[in-house]
Amino acid sequence: MPIVAVVDPARDGLHGNVIKTLKANEKIQRLVYVSCNPTATLTRDAGMLCSPPTKKYPGRPFKITKSQPVDMFPLTNHCEMVMTFDRMSKEEFDMYHGVSKHEKADEKNAVDVKPATKSKEEEHKEEVKKEVN
Question: How do strand 3-7 and strand 28-35 relate by DSSP bridges?
């Protein structure tokens, strides 16, 4: 069953461990982020949530699907931002990274084949060895 997570971090934004947990848990299909600091920490956190998987932040990335400013403090310059992220599907992720269905099939059926001929570099090394001996 898909899970929706809602986060409302302090001005410092999400801790790295929280981002790691959100990305790694692929049961979380939607993330609602309420930000009081949209120009700094939300943009930083969104970048990490939407980036490709890394060793530090594994899991399929999210994509931004909706954003809505909310004026909680009238007559001030401050505005909150509510942003919705949805997890990329496997197909979107593969498309985003340029992996086609044909490439996947080729990778699955790939066999390591060594070239039948030697490279020019290998031939040169052999010639040098012969000359030295």
Answer: parallel
Class of domain 3-102: alpha beta
Strands (E), the chain: 3-7, 28-35, 62-70, 80-87
Tokens of 126: 């052999």
What pLDDT, in 10s, does the model give residues 31-78?
A: 999 999 999 999 999 999 999 999 999 999 999 999 999 998 889 988
| Average pLDDT over every residue of 99-104 | 54
Residue (of 68, 88, 92, 91) closest to 80 by Cα position: 68
DSSP helix/strand/coil, 76: coil
Paired tokens of 116: 């039948």
Query: Structural domain boundaries of the chain?
Result: 3-102
Evaluate if residue 12 carries a pLDDT over 80: yes
Q: Which residues are catalytic?
A: 36, 80
Place of tokens 């969104």: 46
Tokens (6 digits) for 76: 């001030």
